[in-house]
Amino acid sequence: MAEIDRRKASLIAELEISRSEMRSALAQCEESLDVVAQVRRNVRENKIAWLAGAVVLGYIASKVLGRTLGGAAARSSTDAIESSNLSETAAATGSDSSRRSARVWDAATFVFDLAKPTLFAWASARLPDLLSRVASRAPQASASVQSPEQRAQQQPN
């Protein structure tokens, strides 16, 4: 009877070990298949590289989009010259520069939107230290603003 109980306890322990191994293997499998979490972790760990990649990608996209828009602007200005209407030529030139400035603004907004989490993390990491320094200087500043009567009361007789 004791042998059966010992064997039963041994089997229960082996089952529990197998279950825990299966749980850890399942957790590892779920982690390896969670692409969104991996990308988030990678972005958190390599902020500068992701920001640089976004800037390069934005630059390349602006050059590619600039070529297609530039070709259309060149065609429209050529048509305007052929029709010999100078006001249309001036309007085409103005719209081309406004398109360029709009693209630059869009690219800057895109880069800033990508950099916001990094900037906020940087600022929130340094804000408590800055606030503590400001708070430690506040009593000194209030002491310098005291009236002569208050200073006289604080001085020993």
Provide an overview of this structure:
It contains five helices and no strands. It folds into two domains: 1-33; 46-125. It is an all-alpha fold and 157 residues long. It has helices at 2-33, 35-45, 47-82, 86-144, 148-154. The longest helix is centred in the last third of the chain and has 59 residues, at 86-144.
Work out the helix count.
5
First-last Cα distance: 94 Å
Number of DSSP strand runs:
0
Order of helices and strands: HHHHH
The figure for the number of domains is: 2
Average pLDDT for all residues = 76
The 3D shape can be described as flat
Structural class by SSE content? mainly alpha
Largest pleated sheet: none
SSE layout and pairing:
Elements (H helix, E strand, L loop, with lengths): L1 H32 L1 H11 L1 H36 L3 H59 L3 H7 L3
Helix pairs in contact: 3-4
Keywords:
157 residues, mainly alpha, 5 helices, 92% helix, 0% strand, flat
In short:
The chain contains 5 helices and no strands.
